[in-house]
Amino acid sequence: MGLVVISPEKILIDKSLRLGFSAINNETRYEALLVGMDMVQKMGGTTVEVFSDSRLVFGQVNRELEARNLRMQEYLNQARHLQSQFKSFTLQQILRSRNTHAESLTMLATSSA
């Protein structure tokens, strides 16, 4: 999975992570969200603006879609717990074509040995 964290000073932190388990696409999107939120929290950030190309993650976190699957419910609970730790949190859905940087990091993670 790939994620990009951008600080208020416009410093980019790229992460290309390989999960230690088999995951479906939406699980990897949640994993990226949770890792990114955790990174921001550990760096002392209090405001988070997230961009995701996952309609499911976007809809569930923004309370537009219900998490019916037990695994998705667990991810959603973790995201909401982390979300409550920030003064401000927004999640916006973007087109996959606007998420090429994170997608290329995902490809790196999945293709490396």
CATH superfamily heading? Ribonuclease H-like superfamily/Ribonuclease H
What is the level-2 CATH architecture name?
A: 2-Layer Sandwich
Backbone CA Rg: 14 Å
The whole-number mean of residue pLDDT values reads 80
Number of domains: 1
Proportion in β-strands: 15-25%
H-E order: EEHEHHEH
Give the secondary structure arrangement, pairings included.
Blueprint: E1 2-6, E2 12-16, H1 25-42, E3 47-52, H2 55-61, H3 70-83, E4 88-93, H4 100-111
Parallel strand pairs: 3-4
Antiparallel strand pairs: 1-2
Helix pairs in contact: 1-3
Model description:
With 113 residues, the protein is α+β, with helices and mostly antiparallel strands. The chain has a single domain, classed as Ribonuclease H-like superfamily/Ribonuclease H (Nucleotidyltransferase, domain 5, 2-Layer Sandwich), CATH 3.30.420.10. The protein contains four helices and four strands, in the order E-E-H-E-H-H-E-H. A two-stranded antiparallel ribbon has the order 1-2. Strand 1 and strand 2 (12-16) form a beta hairpin. The longest helix is centred in the first third of the chain and has 18 residues, at 25-42. It starts with a strand and ends with a helix. Mean pLDDT is 80; it is low at 104-113.
